[in-house]
Task: inverse folding
């Protein structure tokens, strides 16, 4: 079950910022690895959605090639959204988030570490599996390369932006659906550029612009989203 | 100068705002009615037909002002959210939450009138191009803000959460405005807000601007009405509200 040993957390005064981030990151990774449904549920969800589309539409090669990038991107997006509901909930219910506030641990660091752990545990397996799913969708090798690059740049952005929504809906009863409504406008640019790259490569157009914009979105959200998330967390904790 | 500062200072107090809005509402109502009627007459009757689109371009006099309003209201919403978060002003949050519904309606109106215009002009009710999609995202942002505000039981939590979401979503506004420049879109480019000046004929431009200002005053009217109600609901426990309700009850 939940094991929150006090030695695995540290306030910023106990060591360098990197030390704190590392400890928080490892703690969250440990927590996720013990609760294996955190990893497996989104992964299975991703694979199942990707499997449903060829069944629902036709399994024709050309069609799957055209929709493949978009379907894989949307499936990963939805799976991430499923996991984002649980991002802060376990710690919130165990009272650990309030303890972080009381011990003056920077919530921004907590948020960064949590998102990093969440990305490693949820998104990374999906990115690793995406070439296999891409092959099932008859994507060519350069399409798959561009897909993986886009996912590597885009999924951290999705996790960061999604954490804002997750923090805002933390203590709401029906927060799940609301989370989806809140996050969708923020996810749309990443999805448009990321999935658009796969089709662009197939036509033969360059994808430098999309890659650059995805990188810009990543660094923009990496620098700004943790502050928004920690502010929203403090709000949800009624601090 | 002092008079203006004092006026703005008074707007920040719920009780004073109630009084001020009481005097402003008839003005906003009559000005918006006159301007909208005038703009409609000038646009529908006086302005000449378009050389390409004929008479059916006249939906522009509803479509463009409501689109402008949808973005303007979101800007007002986001700015008042920031003011409320930074300076913790009650009235700022009142303005924020009372602008959300009118903003959503104007966005919906822009999307619907755009769709009605698109069918005869482009042959399609909808396209997933940048301008239309980003305006749809704006509608989702409005709905998200309203939904988030209404899902909290305690108002101070609700206000701050909705304010955070509003500030995060303001990045969509430049995307909407510049979407016709940055992408190859079906929607036409900017014809009014351009560095070279408007490229629209003057006889068509004036009714458009009059309608836009009229819509703006209409938004002001709706905002004042809703904010007035919201202030009374929020400040219910205060004595001035009780006196007000008692006095109103006695008079009616």
Result:
């Amino acid at each position: 079950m939940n094991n929150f040993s006090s030695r695995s957390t540290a306030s910023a005064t106990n060591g360098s910022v990197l030390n704190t981030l590392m400890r928080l990151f490892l703690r969250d990774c440990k927590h996720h690895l013990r609760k294996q449904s955190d990893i497996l549920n989104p992964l299975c969800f991703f694979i199942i959605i990707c499997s449903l589309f060829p069944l629902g539409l036709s399994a024709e090669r050309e069609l799957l090639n055209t929709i493949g990038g978009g379907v894989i991107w949307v499936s990963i997006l939805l799976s991430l959204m499923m996991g984002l509901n649980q991002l802060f909930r376990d710690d919130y219910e165990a009272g650990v988030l309030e303890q972080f506030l009381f011990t003056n641990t920077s919530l921004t660091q907590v948020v960064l570490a949590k998102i990093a752990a969440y990305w490693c545990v949820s998104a990374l397996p999906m990115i690793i599996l995406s070439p296999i799913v891409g092959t099932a969708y008859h994507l060519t090798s350069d399409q798959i390369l561009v897909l993986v690059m886009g996912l590597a740049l885009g999924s951290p952005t999705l996790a960061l932006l999604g954490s804002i929504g997750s923090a805002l809906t933390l203590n709401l009863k029906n927060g799940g659906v609301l989370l989806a409504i809140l996050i969708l406008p923020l996810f749309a640019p990443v999805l448009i550029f990321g999935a658009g790259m796969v089709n662009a490569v197939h036509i033969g157009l360059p994808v430098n612009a999309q890659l650059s914009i995805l990188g810009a979105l990543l660094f923009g959200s990496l620098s700004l989203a943790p502050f928004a998330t920690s502010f929203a967390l403090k709000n949800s904790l009624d601090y | 100068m002092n008079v203006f500062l004092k006026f703005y200072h008074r707007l920040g107090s719920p009780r004073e705002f109630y009084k001020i809005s009481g005097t402003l509402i008839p003005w906003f109502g009559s000005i918006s009615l006159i301007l909208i009627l005038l703009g409609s007459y000038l646009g529908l009757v006086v302005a000449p037909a378009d050389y390409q689109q004929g008479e059916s371009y006249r939906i522009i006099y509803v479509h463009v002002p409501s689109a402008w309003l949808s973005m303007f209201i979101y800007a007002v919403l986001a700015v008042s959210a920031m003011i409320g978060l930074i300076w913790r002003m009650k009235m700022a949050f009142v303005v924020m939450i009372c602008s959300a519904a009118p903003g959503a309606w104007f966005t919906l109106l822009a999307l619907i009138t755009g769709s009605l215009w698109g069918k005869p002009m482009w042959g399609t009710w909808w396209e997933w191009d940048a301008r239309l999609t980003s305006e749809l995202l704006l509608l989702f942002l409005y709905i998200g803000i309203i939904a988030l505000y209404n899902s909290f039981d305690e108002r101070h939590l609700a206000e701050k959460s909705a304010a955070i979401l509003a500030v995060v979503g303001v990045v969509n506004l430049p995307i909407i405005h510049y979407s016709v420049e940055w992408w190859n879109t079906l929607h036409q480019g900017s014809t009014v807000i351009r560095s070279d000046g408007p490229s629209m004929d003057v006889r068509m431009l004036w009714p458009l601007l009059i309608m836009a200002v009229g819509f703006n005053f209409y938004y002001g009217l709706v905002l004042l009405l809703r904010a007035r109600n919201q202030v009374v609901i929020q400040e219910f426990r205060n004595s001035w509200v009780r006196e007000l309700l008692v006095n109103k009850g006695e008079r009616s």
